[in-house]
Design goal:
heterodimer, A: 541 residues, mainly alpha, Sodium/glucose cotransporter, 19 helices, 0% strand, globular, B: mainly alpha, two-stranded antiparallel sheet, 4 helices, 76% helix, disordered N terminus
Chain lengths: 541, 118
């Protein structure tokens, strides 16, 4: 797993890099988004406003926001770097990340929009027992958000080292704290509306920046893919040189691990809570569909960009230069920008990468806060007897707590090899969230026990397998290093075992249930999910 | 506004069980499921075949097609093409065949609710 920004501190600064310029461009982004957030936060009073942006976004706007939420710095810097260094194997990631959206489009987005209100748990507990199902769904939501958040925060430290030339621990810690504080302010002040606008602006900048570089690389190669690949092969140091054009450089030794990762990527996306929550910010299922369509086009075009940029970096910068640069593989995109347009383009691309982290952590934080306040506080602890104002107040406090935890965690894991966290988040989403979502929407016989078994079981199995895998011990790149070895699970990615297990547990739990679910609510859910009754305003037709 | 609480069983006055068995609703349900489920199975199979070939038979992917472009690049890009294609196909199907039916049923349900309230 190398597609996440390495948190390891580099030893030297990039030549030709201008940290002051990078910082100024980033500051301009912060000021612009802060103005937007403050303006949009003025009317975020009700739960509907705070969690779902008043459901006022159009499909295209929400599509941009989904892309902004989904395309993390790992996607941008990580995939460009992976293609530049490992060639085709990097390209394989991006395909999984894209194809996954068809699961969301065909099976999840519209039906969820029609049956839920604010969180994933709304849908899952619709026709099952509220307490246990909400608790389980909130647990997996918080787990996924936490893993993902920690990965992003640690990545921010590594990115700063690379782009701003801040190498000492204290400096990096300060930057992690700044990212955390900015995120808290965005989410606290702007709620879902502000967060969404930050994501829209970021997606626009990311697409524009990557698009300009892509066209630049294509112009240099006469718009010939073959010529670009030729240049990449010519500069390649792999043996044989054209190995970068076919699979195997990174995963050749362990194909099963790659298959396992591929399953988690394609099935995890539609179970990521911060992605699911975005479906609630539009007024109708039809707009939810439109937003996923926009997201698929944006994300697909973006990954096509990364293919060109990755091979472009291999050809123009060279994989050896990339590998020895501070930040390693993650420096491929900034180095390519430097080679193409000098320090100014590099500054813009660096600021975009930063904006990317901010937008993603803000989306994760509001999702986690909504899940805690809406599911655990309002519906489990208070049994639904709480006024929405009180609930939003709890959500805002949760934002501060999560933000502080993320800062502490982000500083704590600095220098640690935490690249596995993003893969872990996808694996948990695919093993514990997706089975319950699909069963709830499509299987009449699904029961509370099935949901609880599947969610807790999927989460536990995934985490246990990761802990006892080479990720944690037994190899030089393990969290505990080579000296400690308690690994008995051979794969870095647990998906191939944990995802079928999640589905199986949901099935077995339902079969062995003694408590019968109310068929009337099951029928109501089915009718609502397909017609949108109750979720769409009567005035709309 | 109140928090959504589908409290069993008093809340819904409409007989959803009966409605769920009505021919119009079954028509919508079957139309939706018969389009979406086979398509989902198809793209997942296509994706996993691609992944299996890439993981287990990388030499096949290295087969040259034109210039430096090999079968792996062509198949990888065709995953993009099928993803975009399925997206557009589903949207056109949903707009033409699902939405009008859904809107009709929604109206019917609202009518039932109004009658109920009286």
């Amino acid at each position: 797993m190398t597609f996440v920004i390495s948190a390891a501190a580099p030893s030297t600064a990039l030549e030709g890099n201008n940290p002051v310029l990078n910082m100024s461009i980033f500051l301009a982004f912060v000021i612009l988004t802060m103005i937007i957030v403050i303006r949009s936060g003025r009317n975020s009073k009700s739960a509907n406003d705070y969690y779902a942006g008043g459901r006022s976004f159009t499909g295209p706007q929400n599509g941009f926001a989904i892309a902004g939420d989904y395309l993390s710095a790992a996607s941008f810097l990580g995939i460009v770097g992976a293609i530049a260094v490992n060639g085709y194997d990097g390209f394989l990631y991006s395909i999984g990340f894209l194809v996954a959206w068809l699961v969301a489009l065909l099976l999840v987005a519209e039906l969820m929009r029609n049956t839920g209100k604010f969180t994933m748990a709304d849908v899952l507990s619709f026709r099952l027992k509220q307490g246990p199902v909400r608790m389980a769904a909130a647990t997996t939501t918080l787990a996924v958000c936490l893993f993902y958040l920690l990965a992003q925060m640690a990545g921010a430290g590594g990115l700063v080292a690379l782009l701003l030339g801040i190498e000492d621990r204290l400096g990096q810690s300060i930057v992690v704290a700044v990212v955390g504080v900015l995120m808290i302010v965005y989410v606290l002040v702007g709620g879902m509306k502000g967060t969404t606008w930050v994501q829209i602006v970021k997606a626009f900048l990311l697409m524009t920046g990557a698009g300009i570089m892509t066209i630049w690389v294509l112009v240099l190669n006469g718009f010939s893919l073959s010529k670009l690949l030729d240049g990449a092969v010519a500069a390649s140091t792999s043996v044989p040189a054209d190995a970068i054009l076919s699979p195997g450089l990174q995963y050749g030794g362990n194909p099963l691990d790659f298959i396992s990762l591929a399953i988690a990527l394609v099935l995890g996306t539609a179970g990521l809570p911060h992605v699911l929550m975005r479906f609630y910010t539009v007024p109708t299922a039809r707009e939810a569909r439109r937003s996923v369509v926009w997201a698929i086009w944006l994300i697909g075009v973006f990954y096509l960009f990364t293919l060109i940029l990755g091979y472009g970096a291999a050809a123009l910068v060279g994989s050896d230069v990339i590998k020895s640069a501070p930040g390693g593989v993650n420096s491929a995109a900034p180095l390519l920008a430097l080679a193409l347009g000098g320090p100014v383009l590099m500054g813009i691309i660096s600021a975009v990468a930063f904006a990317t982290i901010l937008a993603v952590v803000a989306g994760l934080t509001i999702t986690a806060a909504a899940s805690f306040a809406h599911d655990i506080y309002a519906n489990v602890i208070k049994k639904g007897k709480v006024n929405p104002d009180g609930e939003v107040k709890v959500a805002r406090r949760t934002v501060v707590v999560i933000g502080l935890l993320a800062i502490a965690g982000g500083i704590g894991v600095q220098g640690q090899n935490i690249a596995f966290l993003v893969a872990l988040a996808f694996a948990v989403a695919a093993s514990s969230n997706l089975p319950t979502i699909l069963y709830s929407l499509f299987w009449k016989g699904f029961t509370t026990r099935g949901a609880v078994w599947s969610m807790y079981g999927g989460l536990t199995i995934t985490v246990v397998l990761i802990v006892f895998s080479p990720v944690f011990s037994g190899t030089p790149t393990s969290v505990f290093g080579e000296g400690v070895d308690f690994a008995w699970f051979p794969l870095n990615n647990p998906g191939i075992v944990s995802i079928p297990a999640g589905f199986l547990l949901g099935f077995l739990g339902s079969l062995t249930s003694t408590r019968k679910e109310d068929p009337r609510i099951a029928a109501e859910m089915k009718v609502r999910s397909l017609t949108g009754h109750g979720a769409e305003k009567a005035s709309e037709h | 506004m109140s928090i959504h609480q589908p409290e069993p069983p008093a809340v819904s006055k409409i007989d959803y069980e009966e409605f769920a068995e009505s021919p119009e609703f079954l028509k919508l349900k079957h139309r939706h499921h018969r389009f979406v489920l086979p398509l989902a199975a198809a793209f997942l199979i296509w994706y996993f075949v691609f992944v299996l070939v890439a993981a287990l038979a990388p030499d096949v992917m290295a087969t040259p097609v034109f210039g430096n472009v090999n079968l792996g690049i062509v198949l990888g890009l065709s995953q993009f093409v099928t993803t975009f294609g399925i997206t557009m196909w589903y949207v056109s199907f949903a707009n033409r065949r699902l939405d009008p039916l859904g809107a009709e049923l929604r109206e019917e349900l609202e009518q039932l609710e109004r009658e109920d309230a009286q």
